[in-house]
Design a protein that fits this description.
The protein has 211 residues and is mainly alpha-helical. The protein is 69% helix and 5% strand. The protein is globular.
Length: 211
């Protein structure tokens, strides 16, 4: 079944759609003084000056465009609100799990700030989360206990304010429970307490690192 958003795209030509997202990028580049590189890296990333986004598919839907715009706003949010040098040093010091967990906490902090200051950003960040879940393109915590902790933390905190994260949280929680077995409820209870009590004080990447 196609979504209403997908159906609405049937009224536009491929050229109209292509022109639309190119205009979107030009506006973002002008507003924020950034450079966009399309198709060079997957997944989306930024080094603090340049934003790398995957190429759009030849047959484009509204969901593809929403995901693309959400990726754009997400990476812009990191440039504006995240402390990228701190993140890089933290990852080097604490390894893959430290990097993944900090990225999860920083994503929540950064996207809330981005959404609060840019209404359009909030819409596309929420839509892209929904599209990723529907397409099963999100990390669901099934790969390892470390991934489960990071994914759970992101989805648990995000679901407090954005309903789009409630279905992903259910999937991640199920995988979390598989990894931790009989101890899962106790571990999650303690993790919930820490996140709910400490995350409200996170106002920067550095604060997220301390948490």
């Amino acid at each position: 079944m196609q979504s209403a958003a997908s159906n609405s795209m049937l009224n536009y030509s491929v050229q109209d759609i292509t022109d639309g997202w190119m205009a979107f990028l030009k506006v973002l580049a002008s507003n924020y003084g950034l450079k966009f590189v399309i198709g060079e890296r997957v997944p989306p990333a930024t080094d603090g000056k340049t934003i790398y986004l995957p190429a759009l598919p030849m047959v484009l839907t509204a969901d593809d465009l929403d995901l693309f715009k959400g990726d754009g706003f997400h990476e812009i949010g990191h440039i504006i609100y995240s402390n990228i040098p701190f993140f890089q040093a933290f990852a080097k010091q604490h390894g893959n799990f430290g990097r993944f967990l900090l990225n999860a906490l920083d994503d929540v902090f950064m996207e809330r700030k981005q959404a609060a200051n840019e209404r359009q950003a909030g819409y596309y960040l929420r839509r892209s989360a929904q599209v990723m879940f529907e397409r099963k393109q999100f990390r669901d915590g099934s790969a390892s206990p470390a991934e489960a902790v990071g994914c759970y933390s992101l989805c648990f905190l995000s679901a407090q304010v954005w309903s789009e994260y409630v279905p992903p949280l259910e999937v991640v929680t199920a995988n979390f429970n598989k990894h931790f077995g009989e101890h899962a409820d106790t571990v999650r209870e303690h993790l919930d307490d820490v996140l709910l009590s400490e995350f409200p004080s996170v106002q920067s990447t550095d604060h997220a690192g301390a948490l």
